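mind reviewing this stuff:

——
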Amino acid sequence: MQIVFNVKLPATVKKKKAWFVSSCPILDVHSQGETKEKALKNLVEALRLFFISCYERGTLDEVLRSCGFKPIAKGAIRPERFSKKYESVNVPLPFQTTHGTRAGSHQCHA
């Protein structure tokens, strides 16, 4: 079974000579492109690889905490609007589970 987590993050894009440099300052991840659109697309890919790398190394929790992330209470969740100085990028994080969804199949007991 495949599932996708979607992460919405703030990003900036600045023109630097012939290139556009894109950044996600809260995670200190950066990329570039020949156009603003390509720079943002490349940033999404860099962020996706960043998250997957952290997950595979078992450091995702540590990295998020060191970047200032913390869980929020259920009732406190509200749609986030970033200030006008930021773009919004959506980063899809696809995963596949080896556990089935049929009755009687192995279940995760995390």
